[in-house]
Amino acid sequence: MNEKEQLSAIVQRMEVKLAQGHQDDWVRLLHRARTLSAFDCSAAKGEILHYFGGAGSISDLKIDEEFSDLRTQLYTLCYGKRTKH
Question: DUF6966 domain location, by residue (predicted)?
Fold first, then answer.
């Protein structure tokens, strides 16, 4: 699985978990980033990194253990493999 596919798969699963938790605003934000990743993976990763940290961030959400694991995977994928132009 390439990086775009990994990003899409993680975000899509997170969207499902967030929808189940009635976190519609977060679903929309992640969906937008996932759509962007099909065209510009680096831009999508940058967008996603803005969702972490600070009050009211995606880091504050407590859905379940799977969601927490997905969130960690997403952060690692976006931050750990970030490319600079």
Answer: 20-64
